[in-house]
């Protein structure tokens, strides 16, 4: 049976503070929501949980429409209180935490204090996770100190003391107990009396001051008998019985334990009766449904049996006829089989040879794509890096159209290489979806910012529309999702001039923790003819190039379709020439606050340091040496560059470095072999592979060679320094 705790009622706060503070300053719609809140609380307190939840749902919609985080938090708090009363504690915790997430967006410390206190009660006395509950209590106390509310502080300290005593932490709870005794001495709050005397009795029992403990337990029981509440009285009898057992007064200990059991049974009976009134109808409806299903099933069985009996004779005759035909065919086929066997043996040998050639061809294709991508990425690293260095060292060139065009062209060529690699990975089933936390609105704005150059070039406007019902934190492969959006939006921008592109997201269904999100990319560009709409998702296909020359490979939409298949989704297109195009798809993303918190807690925080770290760069390409050295030194790091692996081994024998950036494809001795020899020398310095190879192709060999991470060129400098800092600080913490 869930323990009944001392909680400040939501109705008291709403009636006292809502009418005097909020009501004086808010507009009419907010007054309407406050009125609905009051009604929902009254229905909950009267036991009409269904009506309370219905009214809270209406009020919540209005509060979300007004974007009033305080009112949203209040409604979620009431919903949680309903589920708490219905003993659905997991749901109660979920909605309390949701209420707290909105309360934390405000400056209202009163509601933060109250929700943290409620969460403390849930974790300590319903879910029995005391360590988590105590954290919430302590947070509530800090907010209580800010608002200088001695009453709320007293109640939260009372709950905290009880939780600490229940877990045997009497010394830790001593200070809280003193605070409550001081408060009670000045205010004589009757709702605290029974539990406060019981806690004093528990404390002095722990201190072995038996006579003082006996006094407080008797006082708690005397006050409890004079009040209506049975819960606090029952626990007073229970704790007193423990003292009597210690004093070997077994008869009285048994009597008080028996009273505790009787009071618990009464409370349980009342609660059970209340739950029965709520759950009985649902159970009866389930019974009716099962009865109806059973009748329908028996009726169907009777019909099927009758139907089978009529056709069984006909089937028997047909079976005999078919058997005769089969025997005749078997005789003929036996003769044909003998002849075919020899032909199949010959064909099988030819197939084995063809299959071997196909495997060799596929391997050659993979090696070719990998080699070409490496050879293209290496000079692209130089082009992009030099363009970035020019822009940083010569600020006057930041508005140069030639330099910006050079940088854009290099990134366009890099995008082409990545598209070809992406198609190759999908065809070889090498892609596994990740589980990352992301915010849908942030992803949309990131896409918008990334494509601002193309939008400005074609004089287009990008609009973003996100359904407010979509949770703030979703779990899924945000990188693949962003790639889908990037292809679709860039495609829309490319085929639209002086127009607008709408990125629209709408939540269409929720099943458990999975949220179905429909995404539409809408433009008012040139459109796609009906005859072309079935082939735009094929590789290397582009339509609409008769009058204007649109750049592109024709891989974008093909990649989009194949990536959506990995998500278990598909894409649709609606278009009309001259009126624009709408691409739409639906993806299921998970929303789970427990999993989200776990993922967030596992994310390593990049702690910056003022220390100057020494970096060794092993790179044979002079241009790449220059760019990497400049990038590292402009961020305050010390950098030395060597041309090959043997020189790296020589300098490591003489000097110590904080981290090593290792190229893979080098003459004489490659990066893998160099890393193996470094590790063989007992050098534990972190090594990052800085390479133009695709990461998935070299991950296994890099790990076996003793490398710590891989960064693919060209790279973002922020990504490089984040990984470098993380590995350096981790290495130093292990020393």
Automatic annotation (TrEMBL):
Chain segments annotated as transmembrane: 311-331
Keywords from the UniProt entry: Kinase, Membrane, Phosphoprotein, Transferase, Transmembrane, Transmembrane helix
List of residues that carry 4-aspartylphosphate: 663
Lineage start: Bacteria, Pseudomonadati, Bacteroidota, Flavobacteriia, Flavobacteriales
Domain Response regulatory: 614-728
Name listed for the protein in its UniProt record: histidine kinase
InterPro entries attached to this UniProt entry: CheY-like_superfamily, HATPase_C_sf, HATPase_dom, His_kinase_dom, HisK_dim/P_dom, HisK_dim/P_sf, Sig_transdc_His_kin-like_C, Sig_transdc_resp-reg_receiver
Keyword Transmembrane helix included in the entry's annotation: yes
Domain Histidine kinase: 371-591
EC number: 2.7.13.3
Catalytic activity from the UniProt record: ATP + protein L-histidine = ADP + protein N-phospho-L-histidine
Pfam families to which the protein is assigned, alphabetical: HATPase_c (PF02518), HisKA (PF00512), Response_reg (PF00072)
Keyword Transferase part of the UniProt annotation: yes
UniProt GO MF annotations: phosphorelay sensor kinase activity
Cross-referenced SMART domains: HATPase_c (SM00387), HisKA (SM00388), REC (SM00448)
